[in-house]
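haha ok so turns out i had the wrong file open the whole time. this is the CORRECT one, sorry everyone. sequence first:
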Amino acid sequence: MSKHYFIGIKIPAAAAAKLDADRKSWNLTSHKRYTPAIDMHITLVFIGNDAHGDIQETAKSLRNVEQAPFRLTVNGVKTFGNPSTPRIIYASVENSMELNHLQQQVRQALEPYRFHLDAKPFVPHITLAGKWKGGKPIEEQLAVEEQSFEVTEFSIFQIEPSEVPRYIPIHTYPLKAES
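then structure:
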């Protein structure tokens, strides 16, 4: 099976541990997959399969991304899909011009390569539970404690479906002020 990749921001350990604890307090049994704290992240761009062997050149071009470090605030819980039987339950983040700018730069850096990038609008999120497996619909209001953290880097991650951690950073880029 070929390797799959994405570019994203790893959630700092303390923030991820808090999100994990909040999620565990919900006692969910409705989903097949619960993201371990060590794998929590915000996907900037999903690459998928590197069918043409472009990942190493991509890694070089991402060095040109210029974005100063910034803060993000986790501010709630939302879902993708039907709210009572959601495909995905995620922690949402406040709208951030810096995050949107970083995502746009990363996406532009990938344009010269032959990846099949998702055309859907960017919705920054931290997946907490995925793959609805059935059962009783979720009726209670799920919540996480609001918290902020500093974003100081982003990475290219390789996906290892049967491992923990599942998402392995293979190239990491420190954020830096524009020159």
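The chain has a mean pLDDT of 93.
again sry for the mixup
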